[in-house]
Design goal:
InterPro entries: P-loop_NTPase, Small_GTP-bd, Small_GTPase. Pfam families: Ras. GO terms for molecular function: GTP binding; GTPase activity. Keywords: GTP-binding, Lipoprotein, Nucleotide-binding, Prenylation. With 186 residues, the protein is α/β, with parallel strands linked by helices. The chain has a single domain, classed as 3-Layer(aba) Sandwich (Rossmann fold). Helix content is 32%, strand content 20%. The protein contains five helices and six strands; from the N terminus they run E-E-E-H-E-H-E-H-E-H-H. Strands 2-3-1-4-5-6 form a six-stranded mixed beta sheet, with helices on both faces. A hairpin with a 2-residue loop joins strand 2 and strand 3. Helix 4 packs antiparallel against helix 5. The longest helix has 17 residues. The structure holds guanosine-5'-triphosphate (GTP).
Length: 186
């Protein structure tokens, strides 16, 4: 699902699921996931969509009703990074206006093959005002954090009280994330 929105939604509903070609210990795709946020269980229904251009028209149907979209690129693949802008334009056109978007630079474990610097991901994310994490589906680095941040944001939006301190997903992600240069993966 590189260069691709993966949709996380709290709604129930039918959607086709695609199986990942390998079974990483930390999976972005294909399952419902329950995340406990401050004692409240938030159910995320996760769909993986095809990244290739030829599936574009099909993918609109996936993310039209999504409450959150994880946009993944591969840090070892420049074209996947370059396609992110086009996806953001698409999302602007087809997704819900208040959709939660997160940019993820995946395969952070493959540092020797890296072609996209972490700063480039950060700059792009800042430009679009979305949170950014480098992740690894192989080691699990920042994967749980990505889902937790989305769940926290959705819970906050659903139950927003007048006197509740506002939840800032970008600040939360920045304060919690592990850097790929750091030695300790989860
Ligand atoms: N080392 C490493 N390999 C990964 C990681 N994530 C995925 N892969 C591998 O990358 C390959 C492609 O993974 P996919 O999930 O099929 O990639 P994709 O971009 O989703 O493909 P489409 O959904 O068809 O666009 C597989 O062989 C995975 O095992 C990661 O974080 N680290």
């Amino acid at each position: 699902m590189t260069g691709t929105p993966g949709a996380a939604a709290t709604r129930d509903g039918e959607a086709p699921e695609r199986s990942p070609p390998f079974s990483p210990s930390f999976d972005f795709t294909g399952k419902n996931k329950v995340v406990t946020v401050d004692g409240v269980r938030v159910k995320l229904q996760i769909w993986d969509t095809a990244g290739q251009e030829r599936f574009r028209s099909v993918t609109h149907a996936y993310y039209r009703d999504a409450q959150a979209l994880l946009l993944l690129y591969d840090i070892t693949n420049k074209s996947s990074f370059d396609s992110i802008r086009a996806w953001l334009t698409e999302i602007h056109e087809y997704a819900q206006r208040d959709v939660v978007i997160m940019l993820l630079g995946n395969k952070a474990d493959m540092s020797s093959e890296r072609v996209i610097r972490s700063e480039d991901g950060e700059t792009l994310a800042r430009e679009y005002g979305v949170p950014f994490l480098e992740t690894s589906a192989k080691t699990g680095m920042n994967v749980e954090l990505a889902f937790l941040a989305i769940a926290k944001e959705l819970k906050y939006r659903a139950g927003q009280q007048a006197n509740e301190p506002s939840f800032q997903i970008r600040d939360y992600v920045e304060s919690q994330k592990k850097r790929s240069s750091c030695c300790s993966f989860m």
